Amino acid sequence: MADRVVLAYSGGLDTSVGIGWLRDATGKDVVALAVDVGQDGEDLDAVRQRALDCGAVESIVVDAKDEFADDYLVPALKANALYQKRYPLVSALSRPLIAKHLALTARQLGADSVAHGCTGKGNDQVRFEAAVAAIAPDLTSVAPVRDLALTRDEAIAYAQQHDLPIEQSERSPYSIDQNVWGRAVETGFLEDPWNAPTEDLYAYTQDPTVPREPDEVTITFEQGVPVAIDGQRFSVLRVVQELNALAGKHGVGRIDVVEDRLVGIKSREVYEAPAAIALIAAHEELESLTLERDVRRYKRNVESEWADLVYDGLWFGGLKRSLDAFVDHTQLHVSGDVRLRLHGGRAVVTGRRSSQSLYDFDLATYDSGDTFDQSQAKGFIDIWSLPSRISARRDQAN
């Protein structure tokens, strides 16, 4: 039905008022599509009904939690993905999955266009539209908030004037996005980077300054994939959910950062990602045990490029797919256990072991039983430093 447009619906302010805006601007019926990527605390049946109450002709909810964990979070974890060394790609990872279901639903319904609630200042507009273009290049993307230059104040006023069923908390000045990998809070008083976050902003983590006993947890990986906690096997989704609770109790994963958006402006963001930060810390430590030195060194550069590509909305791009192949190959021997101590906002590795370990105790020890032949070190250093010695002689002669 080309007279329909499929809207990526979150249940929040912008997409709720976007239903009416889209209908008025395009003359098309609006189908709302909500994708469940583990948004804790949201009643998706209520979200479905809210879309209908706001004027959608049909409201669809897709349970994609396991797909998100297996196909999006696992590659990110294997790549130790942190944008600008800080941000664990909370929103950036969910957008290509949502865009995929958006495009698939549009094709199933015969619609010729899709829509999202992004502004013209953010990254998500690029992520949605670039992903849709890569999956279904024939579809047209519409962004009512951006294309009509509607402000958040105007959206709140529109919701009030039309008596839309938007909860008061959603009329707050904050913009919140969340999924099972983390939670992002922006706008409001946070737009001044000098203002400290207040405790009421957080939902996934407890105050790390409150005294409490530390917890220790052992995470088991198989070829880079987390498969068990304290010996009990879980799905990837369940591992993330369990660690959100365990690490979140200790305030692990709170991030306050000024980041460089794709559109060229800086943005102050507050994130909380307890499972993501804990898992990345554990995974990196297991790699230190199982990867060769040159592989680890090269992979660090790949990780940075991988995170940049995903942040910039190129999940389905050729370079990112090629980097995936490299990263997957590095994970063949990344299997074993990592013990974490969770306390005071930190996830600290206290132990690591692997049957694939490259750590040789007999070579590493300084005690009796040392098998390292130290007599070979002098010759190695002479050859290693030979280029430096030759160039130094030249420089001193000039």
UniProtKB/TrEMBL annotation:
* Substrates-to-products reaction catalysed: L-citrulline + L-aspartate + ATP = 2-(N(omega)-L-arginino)succinate + AMP + diphosphate + H(+)
Q: Does the keyword ATP-binding apply?
A: yes
GO BP annotation list: argininosuccinate metabolic process; L-arginine biosynthetic process; urea cycle
Q: In which pathway does it act?
A: Amino-acid biosynthesis; L-arginine biosynthesis; L-arginine from L-ornithine and carbamoyl phosphate: step 2/3
Q: Which GO terms describe its molecular function?
A: argininosuccinate synthase activity; ATP binding
Q: Which UniProt keywords apply?
A: Amino-acid biosynthesis, Arginine biosynthesis, ATP-binding, Cytoplasm, Ligase, Nucleotide-binding
Q: Residue limits of the Arginosuccinate synthase C-terminal domain?
A: 174-390
- The protein's name is Argininosuccinate synthase
Organism field? Curtobacterium pusillum
Q: What is the lineage of its organism?
A: Bacteria, Bacillati, Actinomycetota, Actinomycetes, Micrococcales
